[in-house]
Amino acid sequence: MFNKWIEKGMKYLEKQQQKQEQQKQKNQSKLPQTLDEKKAYLVKKTTYHSDKMMNFIDNLQFQLQNLEVNLDQFPELIQKNQNSLENSVLYDVKSIKSDKNYFSPSDKFQEFIKNQKIEKFQFLDEKFQQFIDRQILFKDEVYEYNKENNQKLYCIAIVQFHHKLGPIIEYNYPKNVNHEVLDTLTYLALPDAIHNKDEDYIYFTIKNPADQNSILYGVSYFKQIKVTDEMRQNNKDLTRNQMQKSICILSHLPLFGYLVSRIAPTTQAYFDQKDFTDYNILESAYLSINNMLRETQGNLDESEIYLGTSPKALIYQFKEKTLVLLKALLLEGRILVFSLNSQSCSNFILSLTSLLPGILYFDYTNHKIQLTRLELQDHGLPFRLFDQDKKSLEMYFTIQSLDSLKSSKSYLIGTTNTLIKNNQNVDLVIDLDKKNQLSFKNTTLEKMCKLNNKEKKFMDGLVKEVQQNIQVQEKTWIGVTQNIFSMDTEWKGSNDYYRHFFHNYFKDMTIELSLFINNLKIIQNDYSQILQKNEKMFFGDQHHEENGHIQNQMIHHNQVGAENVMGMNYNSQESSKSKFIKQMREILLVNEKDLRRFNLKFLQNWLQTDNFKFWFLHRSKNLYKLSNQYYENDKNLENQDRQIFFLPGHELYYGKLNKGQKEGFGITYQMRNKIQIESEYKEGMKNGKTKIQSLDKSFYFEGEYLDDQKEKYGVLIQQKEIQYQGNFKNNNFHGQGNLTDKDGNIYEGEFKEGKKHGMGKLQYKDGNMYIGTFKQDFFEGQGQFVYANGDIYNGQFKKGQKQGNGEQIKGGEKYTGEFYNNEYEGQGNLEKEGRTYQGTFKSSKLLENIDQIIKFQTGDVWHGPVKEWKRNGEGIMNYSDGKVVYSLYNNDEFIKELQDYEIKEKMDKIQQKFQQMEDFYFDQDLLQEDVYKVQQIQEEDDEQNKNSLQQQQLNEFEDENIDIKDEFENDIDLKNKHNNDDNIQFQTDIDNWDQDDQFQQKFDNQFQDQEEDQKQNSVISYNKQKVTKDSSKSDKKNKKAQKNKKSEKKQK
Fold first, then answer.
1. Where is the UDENN domain (predicted)?
2. Nearest to 543, CA basis, from 524, 530, 556
3. How many CA atoms lie within 13 A of 159 on its CB side?
4. What are 886-897's pLDDT values in tens digits?
5. Which of 128, 480, 628, 732 has an alpha carbon 20 to 30 Å from 75's alpha carbon atom?
C-alpha cells in the first residue's frame, strides 16, 4: 500500500516537471528577437510583471501622451467643446477658462505668489486677501449672482389633466412666466399612468430659457381627487368621476428635499378646501418660501443641499452593489431606473449621485459652498458625467423625449413608463419594484464594474453598520420623503456620515492615481537619461540608431533587483543609478498596492472616458503630495519650495507635505473664520513655536505647541473674551499665569487644567479683590477678600463662600467667629454700634429666646435674651462698679428690677430646666439600655436564622448524624414544654401572692430551674455547632476531591 502511494507521488512530480518544461519553452518562444523587441522587453521587465498592471500602465501611457500632445491646443479643445460643457447641468463657469493652460485654485495661487516675489508670505496681507476674494472665492461674482437672482423661486403652478385637451396649466404665479417653461411643465408635472395612482411626487430639471447656463429645479405633487356633484355644478367640464391635479414649484436653487418639505403643508391645505379656484394659499406659499430662501440661501451648506437623500436606504437595499452602480456612472454607462412610483425613482437617483463629491451642487454656489468647491477643484472634481445634449441626468424621463436616447452617449434617467424601460439603447436597468433588481444589458460593462476583495471589504463594513443603525421608515424611498426632518439627530450613523465615506473614497482615488502618474513620469525621464549615458553598455553600438525609440518607452517596475533583471554587472559608477531605479520601483510598487484598492481593471477602463480626461486636465499639479505614500527624506524636503494646498476643513496651506501631512515650517489659513497659523509641523501636527492670528484681530496666540496642543509659555488674546499670559499644558491654562476675563477681572496666580487652582490674586473690575487659595475656579481654604468700599474679610472659604472661622469688617461692624454660606453662623463676636455681642448666630443674627452676652462701652455686661440687637426679657446686668442686678428689659428699655421671690422663681425655673436636662439624659441612658436589649434580641434572631440554616445542613447529612438530630429535636420539645408549664405556674403564683406565704421559696426554686434550662440550652447549642462544623468540613473535603479529579482529567 505504501509503495502505491510512492508511485503515485513520483508520477505526479514527473507531470509537474513536464508542465514546467513546456512553460519554459513557451516563454522562450515569446522572447524578443529583433533589437526593437529586445529594448521594449528590457524596459518592461524592469517594472512590475503583472499582466493587469502592465495593461493598465500601457493604457495610462497612451492616454497621457495624447493629452499632453493636446495641451498646446487646449484653447481649441475648450472652444470645440464649449457648448456641451456650458449646457452641462454640472457646468461651473469658473472652473473652465479659455487660457492656454487651466490652473486649479492651488496652482493659480502658486503662480500669483511666484509673480509677487514677496520675501515674507502672509495670507493676511491685503494683496493676498484681494486675490483670494476675487480670484479664488469669486466673491464679487457670487454677490452679483445672488443680487441679480433675488427671486429664489421661479414660479408656482397648477397643472390639470383635461379630458379633451390633455395636461393644461390651470394657474401660475407670477403671471409673467416664460411660455416655454409652462409648456414643459405640462408633461413633466403629471406622471405616466395617472389613473392608477392616488398621489405621487416628481423631481425634474428644466433649462432656463432666459439663461442657457442656468437650470430650474422642480418638484411636483400629484393627487387624484374624487369629483362630487357640487364640483360638477361649479365646473361643467368635469364629466369624469376622478380629477387629476399637480401643484408644481420651480426654484433657482437645487433644494429638492427642502422644496418637498415646504410644499407638503400647502398641497394638503389646498386639496382639503372644496373650492379649487381659490389660489390665495398658493400665492401666500410662494411669497413665504421665496422670502425664506432669500434670507438663508447665502448660508446654505452641504447638508441642506443633500436634504431628502438617503445613502442609508441605498446601502441597505443594494448593499455592495452600491459601489457597482457608482462605477457604472463613472464609466459613462447608459443607466435606466424604473419604478411605477416616480417618487422612488427621484429619491434613488438623487441619493446615488449624492455619493459622488459635488455632483448635486449643480450650478449653485455661495460663500460656504465655494469653500468646499475649492478643495474639490484641486482634486479635479466633481466628475463631469452629464450634460443636456448627449449625457442626460433626468430624475423623471417622459415618453416625449424617448427619441433622444438613441443619440445619447450616456445617461442616468428615471421613468415610470414600461415602453421606455424596454428600449434597446440601455446598458443597465435598475428595477426598484422587483426587489432592486440589476439587469446588465451590456455584459462588458458588467465585467468592468465587478468588485475586487478590497472593494467588497470596504462595502461590507458599511453594510453591517447601516443594518444596525437604520430606522424602519428609512428602508423605503417613500418613507425617506415622509420623514425628511425626523431623522439623523447625530453625526455618526447619519446619511451625511455614510456619504462622507464615499466622498473620501473618490478623493483618495484621484490622489493615488495622481501619485502613480507622477512616479511614472519621474522614472521615465530619469531612466531615459541613464540609457542615454550608458547606451553602449546596455545595447551596444546599434543603440545609436534606435535612441529615439527607447526614450518613448514606458517604464514598468517589479520587485526583482535591477541588476538581476538586466543580467548585467554594474561598476561603482553605474550601481548608484541602478539603486535609483530599484528605489523608484519600490515606490511604484507601494503606490500600485494602493491603486488596487480601486480595482486596476476598472481604472484601466475609466482611462478611456471623457470624464477622466477632464479630471486629468483640471486636477492640481501637486495633488499627488496629499497621498500618505508620498515621502521625501529630510534633505530632499529642505530643498523643496513651499507650495499651496487646499486641505480638508476649508484650509489653505502654504508649506511642504510629507506622507500627506504638513511637515516643517508652514502657514495655514482657515478660510471660513479667516485665521492664519504660522507653525513648525511634524507629522501634520503643530510642534514648536506657533503664531495664530485672525484677520479682524479678534484672536491672537503666540507660544509653544506640542503635538497640536498648547504647551509651556504662551500669550492668548480673544477680544471680548479673555486675555491670558502664562503657561499651558494639554491646551489648557496650567501653572503660573495672568488672566483677564471678558468682564475685565484680572487674575494672577496658579492654574490647573484650565481652572484657577492654588495661590492667586483676583482683582475685580469694580475694585473688589481676593487674595488666597483657589480650587477648581472657587475660593477655597484660607483667603482675604477686600471690598472696594474698604470692607475686609479674612478667613476660610469653601466653594467660593465664606465658611468656617473668619473675621470680617463691614460698614463699621467687626465680626469674629464662624461663617456659613457668607452668613454669621455659629459662635461669634460682633462689634456693632458701640456694643459687643457674644453668643450664637444664625443667618447673621443672634438667636432669640436664649441667653446671649452684650458688652457696653461703659463696661457694663448683659447676660440674657436679645431680640433685634436689644435686651429683651429677664437677665442679669453686671455693672462696671461691681453691682449685679436681676432685671427685666423690653426692647432695650428697663422695666423693673426683679425681687427675691421673682429671682427665686427664676432660679426655680432654671433648676427645673436643669432637672429636665437631667431627666433627658436619664431617659437617654434608659434608651441606650433599650437599644442594648434590642441588639440582644436581634442577635437572638440572627442565632435562630443560623439555627434554621444549620437545620437545612442537618437534613443533608441526615444519614450520618441521625442520632444527634433526634436528640436535638427532643431537647427543643422538652424545653418548649417545660417553659410553657413554668409560665402557667408562674402566673398562678402571682395571682396567689397575698395568700401563699411560701411564694419566695417557690420563686427561688423556679429561678434554679431556669438556670438548669440555660445549661441544657448551652449543651444543645454546642452540639449544633459541632454538627455544622463537621458538615462544613465534609463539604470542603468533597470540593477538594472534585477539584483533584478535574485537575487529573486536564493533565490527562
1. 154-626
2. 530
3. 26
4. 888 998 888 888
5. 128
